[in-house]
Amino acid sequence: MSDPKTGPIPAVPSGRPPAAGPDQAAGLLAGRVVLVTGAANGLGAAYARGIAAAGAHVVAVDVDAEGLQRLSGQLAAADGQGSIRVADVADWAGAHDLVRDCVAEHGRLDGLVNNAGVFAMARAGTESEATVRRMLEVNVLGAVAWGDAAVAAMRTQGHGVLVNVTSGEQMGRAETAVYGATKAAIATLTYAWAAELADVGIRVNAISPNAQTRMAEVLEQFRGAPSGQNAGIAPEANVPLLLYLLSDLSVELTGQVLRSYGPELMLTTHPALAEPVLRHTAWTPERIAEAVTARLLPHLAPLGMRRARIEYLD
């Protein structure tokens, strides 16, 4: 793999250990307890299986009871440690009760994977109130509820790791505005929680995964044609990055969003104020128009997802 501006990109930066792969992960999370929301299918089920294979006890939460039973059988067949809990992640009280039960049963909660999410598409001006509300309830309210409950438990024990699940859609793509907005909210939660909790031993990062899941089916139904969305990328391809974020390999990392896309690993930049910063003692609409045209126009960001070279000024 290479970058047209910088040349070949090393698979692993010099001096840094590689994230554990399927054959290297055994024991990486030994003795830990990790809760995964939205664990019955797709990425969530792959995360749960990977966490159990790494030696942790995984607590799998989902509203899909049948899917959880299927996952339970898979964990048992692989000699993994795990338990299942049927719950709607948008239930605030239920989230706090279940986390308290988890700590009471296992004596600890080392990690939370805030994975549960609802994906839907609509063109601007044709949104469904019911669909929008459900996306907000599951993707945002649910993430806050489980994160809040987990943080309360982790503060008491003095350590813990939160891994939120966001998406490239957070950067703004046509026909996924609301879903993207919920994932942008998850990124902001990640940045803010990390800043607040760094001094109490709780790390907060996010994974931006890619895989061929039910999301591709929604795209195909909406557009009436094969989407090619993440074609050929199995949910399991994202597990090494998740295990890295949950493990001590990333002990110095917090407040970051890492993106997995098949063979590619990328860092998602934080929102930032862009240089140049213009100053005037008395701005008027006309002066702003002149300043934008003369000074800011060359620096305007393009629409949608893009790759940017990072150069921090402070």
Summarize the structure.
The chain is an alpha/beta fold. 38% of the residues lie in helices and 15% in strands.
In terms of topology, how is this protein built?
Layout: E1 2-3, E2 7-8, E3 33-37, H1 42-53, E4 57-62, H2 65-77, E5 81-86, H3 92-106, E6 111-114, H4 129-157, E7 160-165, H5 177-197, E8 202-208, H6 214-223, H7 239-246, E9 257-261, E10 264-268, H8 285-296
Helix pairs in contact: 1-7, 3-4, 4-5
Structural notes for this entry:
The protein has 314 residues and is an alpha/beta fold. It has one domain (24-268): 3-Layer(aba) Sandwich (Rossmann fold), CATH 3.40.50. Helices cover 38% and strands 15% of the residues. The protein has helices at residues 42-53, 65-77, 92-106, 129-157, 177-197, 214-223, 239-246, 285-296; strands at residues 2-3, 7-8, 33-37, 57-62, 81-86, 111-114, 160-165, 202-208, 257-261, 264-268. Helix 1 crosses helix 7 (239-246), helix 3 packs parallel to helix 4 (129-157) and helix 4 packs parallel to helix 5. The longest helix is centred in the middle third of the chain and has 29 residues, at 129-157. The protein is globular and about 65 Å long. The model is unreliable at 1-22 (pLDDT under 50).
Mean pLDDT: 87
User: What oligomeric state is this?
Assistant: single chain
- How many helices in DSSP terms? 8
How can the largest sheet be summarized?
Answer: 8 strands, mixed
Give the neighbour order of strands across the main sheet. Answer: 5-4-3-6-7-8-9-10
Q: Unreliable stretches, pLDDT < 50, 5 or more residues?
A: 1-22
CATH architecture annotation: 3-Layer(aba) Sandwich
- Rg, nearest Å: 21 Å
Strands, count:
10
CATH homologous superfamily name? NAD(P)-binding Rossmann-like Domain
Query: What is the level 1 CATH name?
Result: Alpha Beta
In percent, how helical is the residue content?
25-40%
Shape descriptor: globular
Class inferred from helices and paired strands: alpha/beta
Q: Might you state the CATH topology name?
A: Rossmann fold
